[in-house]
Specification:
two-stranded antiparallel sheet; 18% strand; alpha+beta
Amino acid sequence: AAVGEYIGFFDCHVAPNRHWHREVIQHLRAQPRRLVVPIIGDLDLDTWDEKHVGGSNSKCYITWNAEFMWFEDSSDFIPVISGGLVATTREWWRDSGGFDREMRGWGGENV
């Protein structure tokens, strides 16, 4: 069980940089009942370093035909959380119910 003030789930699509947590915590302190999702960078599979000329994605949505799509805009809002990449306050995680108790696994990349 989480005992810290914040809880996060980050899968292999992200490689946090030094001090990566500072901006996450800043957003959560400003609005404790929110989810913070990192930008998904393009990682070098041999070094896990972010590629300087690679692409990055941070926002996604699903069409009525169940197609998973990426997009960018200037807002802080996202319609769908991408994969296992999210942080929130422990209190909001608990109050919102966390993961479904019947959840048996994670995955199904892009639905």
